[in-house]
What does this fold into?
Amino acid sequence: MSNDEIGVTYRLETSGDIAALAAKIAADQSTGTFTELPGETEEVQARCAARVVAISDLPDAAVPSIPDPDGTGPYHRADVVIAYPLEAVGTDIAALMTITIGGVYAVRGLSGIRVMDIELPDAWSCHPGPQFGIPGSRRLTGVESGPILASIIKPSLGLLPSETAAVVRQLCEAGVDFIKDDEKLMNPGYSSLADRVAAIMPVIKDHEQKTGKKVMYAFGISSADPDTMMRNHDLVVEAGGNAAVLNINSIGYGGMSFLRKRSKLCLHAHRNGWDILTRHPGLGMEFRAYQKIWRLLGVDQFQINGIRAKYWEPDESFVRSFHDLAAPIFTETDRALPVVCSGQWGGQAVETYRRTGRTLDLMYLGGGGIHGHPMGAAAGVRAIRQAWNAAELDVELDDHAKKHPELAAALAKWG
Amino acid sequence: MSNDEIGVTYRLETSGDIAALAAKIAADQSTGTFTELPGETEEVQARCAARVVAISDLPDAAVPSIPDPDGTGPYHRADVVIAYPLEAVGTDIAALMTITIGGVYAVRGLSGIRVMDIELPDAWSCHPGPQFGIPGSRRLTGVESGPILASIIKPSLGLLPSETAAVVRQLCEAGVDFIKDDEKLMNPGYSSLADRVAAIMPVIKDHEQKTGKKVMYAFGISSADPDTMMRNHDLVVEAGGNAAVLNINSIGYGGMSFLRKRSKLCLHAHRNGWDILTRHPGLGMEFRAYQKIWRLLGVDQFQINGIRAKYWEPDESFVRSFHDLAAPIFTETDRALPVVCSGQWGGQAVETYRRTGRTLDLMYLGGGGIHGHPMGAAAGVRAIRQAWNAAELDVELDDHAKKHPELAAALAKWG
It folds into this structure.
């Protein structure tokens, strides 16, 4: 791949010929009609011609990813790299998605297609990337080393602002570094963002005055309307807040781009909705490709589930996601902080540490694992810190728990 | 469904119990953790409790939509309606997508999920909807009745602005009502939007002066950055243009919402990228649900392929899409103009007319079908008008072609 091309890797599946399908995909980006045309000169085609760079065969599949009414397998599979001229795509994310991804999903003759990766030339470093990222998250939370220990309001939904504030106080006193609204909590009638900010920020400030520790609270400011989202952002900033939860798919590239340029908040991304793009292994998009776009747009902290998550995602997928986030696109500073979450209570810390490159550059988020600890939330926080100490010391949890009653209690309940 | 609820219909598939899965989905929207919690009172749950309204069983499937490593079919299927309290969701599209769709895609224990429809209460009529829609498209093009006849620049990509302008002149003289940039053409190095507007608008104006007819030209103004997209919009408006092509998935809800509030242009939507959400019949989202959101956001004209399209989409799916667009959400004015396109040359006019409710409220877009007509583009336009006359007269194309040589030539080439 040259530095004036964009490379996209597709996992293709077809009962026909893979090389022919790859060539058709590359050609469709420059002509795209069903009949021969006047004016379709070589010179015209050269300005935007995509080219097939590599085809790596994979084993055939017996069953097609998309049901095939003609039923004529086997289904050939390959990872195909196609290079697009930067001249034709430019550096706009809308152009990238339209030319190299959206159109390809519509091509006839395939029974499966998954975007595996996107390789971007240096010109794409023009995008803002994370404003805070890993160093900014550490600075704002005051956590110089080790995992940033996070929690979420539980019950997730249905609490009045005053009830939420009481949970925030409990979590601050329990010793967490970060608290967030559930991603499904934005601006409902029973708990408007304005009322929530007004109820919660005094608790955060009070705790800071007493202890010197400012807990980072990420408010759910998402709106499909960027003007509304900016008003939400301003509410949080004016009250002294420093973070926000964003449902990135629900605001779209436009919402994220608009906010990032103006944002004073650390942006914590929830990828709610992403699952439908990735749950079928033969269809959609790998997180590796997906996260690059959102990091360029400015995500500071990225939720990626965890080991033994409560959702469908297999552990291997989470581990890959973690490594994806750890890899620079252009520079170290375009990395987003991995947020390990979903069903986490500390019991997964050692395995997480061992499988993700033995790094402590992460946020570890316990919801039920803190609120539901049999000895209370403060013990839940201590149990998780103990579990991460075990990880760092490279000892087994069961051994470590012998001297740490909170961890022992968590293991007894969930282990 | 009461008027203070939002109803979402899901096509669920599971090797387990459908009713249990439906109940879990409803419950996950209000609690959503893996362990029992203090504070999870009935009062708290009631504020945002979703409820299962209906379960309509469908035949079992032998093969799961998402591969099932445990391999324990049969896979039960049903259409399940879940009602969400308006109080909990509000009227923001980001909240709707996050609460009722995004989270549901992540639930464990399902082997297939497809969002079939979204039923919105009156409070959702607060959204702007189309600014021009069908009456505005007719007014701006001067086409009082019958299909609005449209074309696209061909070759789609790779032409310099001056070469594009020459194609525009040819199409104007051929008698089309509407011309558009290919959706993949936005702002490439070889044909910037500014240069294209500067080259094309004088041709549109010159043709208007000579003939009194202002051809609507839709420029590709999409950008993932709403500020850039507004500058693109302003370029078109200042040059006297009146329409734009938008790649709606590539700009996202935020981009569309931002633009619509400020737009002076008729917004022609291309749903590039939508295919991956809908191509597998057991996964993703039906166009019926999808198009409602984008109409509320302000789409005026909606591309939906056509009979015998060049892409994967079956004819039945196109026909359903057409009817979806024809159905008001709240009022007649929230309808978007259906744009019938992809591989169209007139030969599909009679069947389209008969299968879509015998309406002429549509745009019919021929690309290769006009540019590639053996007697030239003007004959291509006449052939398509002749085909639609046959449709309206309810006669067969072959019979009609006996007195219409342009249609006969098209039939000879593509029929």
Summary: Chain A has a mean pLDDT of 95.
